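Lab notebook: predicted structure, single chain.

Context: the supervisor wants predicted structures on file for every construct in the current expression panel, including those that have not yet been purified. This is the next one on the list. No modifications to the sequence; it matches the entry in the shared construct table.
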Amino acid sequence: MPGRRVFVIGVGMTKFEKPGKVDWDYPQMAKQAGERALEDACISYDEVDQIAVGYCYGDSTCGQRAVYELGMTGKPIYNVNNNCATGSTALFMAKQFIEGGLCECAMALGFEKMERGSLGSKFMDRTNPMDKHMMKMMEIKEFAPSPPAAQVFGNAGREHMEKFGTKAETFAKIAYKNHRNSVNNPYSQFRDEYSLDQIISAPEVYAPLTKLQCCPTSDGSACAILASEAFVKSHGLEGQAVELIGMSMATDTAAVFKENSGDSLRKLAGHDMTKIASQTVYKQTGLGPDDVDVIELHDCFSANELITYEGLGLCKEGEAEKFIENGDNDYGGKVVINPSGGLISKGHPLGATGLAQCAEMCWQLRGEAGKRQVKDAKVALSHNLGLGGAAVVSMYKRPEEWRSIPMKRKVSLGEGPPASKL
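Prediction complete. Output recorded below exactly as produced.
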């Protein structure tokens, strides 16, 4: 049932970094992102009623330890873990706190301090939450000596190639676009532009994926401050408020593990979750994929960006390659996808990723994204996916009636972070 309107009134994030490059720990990352979001919102931490904190690698109350850097007010703090969808899950929780009338202002904070190299399980003495997915994948494809996540998404890409004739080069074109976009994003872990040939000839991780088509592990944090309509108005924040007009989370259905079909490998990679969540958001908002101007989606691997085009309904099934060849996924096309550089270039600190997407969407809709700004962006959509699984789709829009109101805060960090205090 629809509840109260919910607005993002402030966002902030750290620059994403290669693990170990910067001498910092998660409390320092979280403090930096949280302070930037609070400054953007023109409020103090004391005005925040409830806090949802997302991270994947850490002990049970890291959320409290991180937030205590901002203040110790005795307010509720919830620790959230939903694999790579953790950041957006924290955002979804914060939205529901306000939507349901539990509070007037909430914070969603995410961070991750990671290790270099591919992701792996930390607990070998208990059932792996991905065991059903991996067993199903091995019924269809022989397990290879490659990172498991690369196999899940690489096999989804292979399935698309086998069923629709998609070329390996098409996946590389996605990585080319995202690496190019990252050059204009000072928050990105990597800001190097590569030629298509360089991407194709990079070391193979799991065909059709090369190293430059895979996201890195990262250190970093991001934060969003959400508020009710009454809070926005009482604090004079109408000019900068971005409404979360729709949001939905979906998890795996039983169909993922049933008999083999022509889309079994894409289902294992979360394709159905994406479809379910996006269709729910379109129903909530009365808008469709053709109404969206800018998207940040979960390009953990180039193959996932391609299949997500179809999962979000941006094009028909089997037509993602045509969508790319026509330039419909880029500046000057139908919709600009991953102007930030996406996970492939910006980086992927798991708990922060979904909230970094939120920050980019708000900067784009407020016209504050600098060189990566999408012209006349009015409707934005984000997509955050975690294997195991969860998919969160969110839609954003600035209220038309508030567009002429000046923003309360004077300095935006959309074009890049200030000099680090760390």
